[in-house]
Design a protein that fits this description.
Shape: globular
Helix content: 40-55%
Distance between the termini: 34 Å
Structural class: mainly alpha
Strand content: under 5%
Number of helices: 2
């Protein structure tokens, strides 16, 4: 697996979800879930779990419309 050269909330979300089962206590699990919720704002998913066309300026997709300055 290669390391992306830009912001990638998808990869971060996958890593967090993989670590939540290894969290030593409820506080750590809660913090991981809190971070995952914040990432969900950057990369929303539909009810089927797919990101699809739900692009935001910070979702990390290459075809994301850029904010105009």
């Amino acid at each position: 697996m290669s390391t992306p050269n830009r912001w990638c909330p998808k990869m971060l979300m996958e890593k967090l979800n993989g670590q939540v089962v290894h969290a030593p206590d409820d506080l750590t699990r809660d913090k991981i879930n809190e971070l995952a919720s914040l990432l969900q704002l950057h990369r929303p998913a539909a009810s089927n779990g797919k990101h699809g066309e739900l692009h935001t300026p910070t979702c990390g997709c290459e075809d994301t419309p850029q904010e105009k300055s």
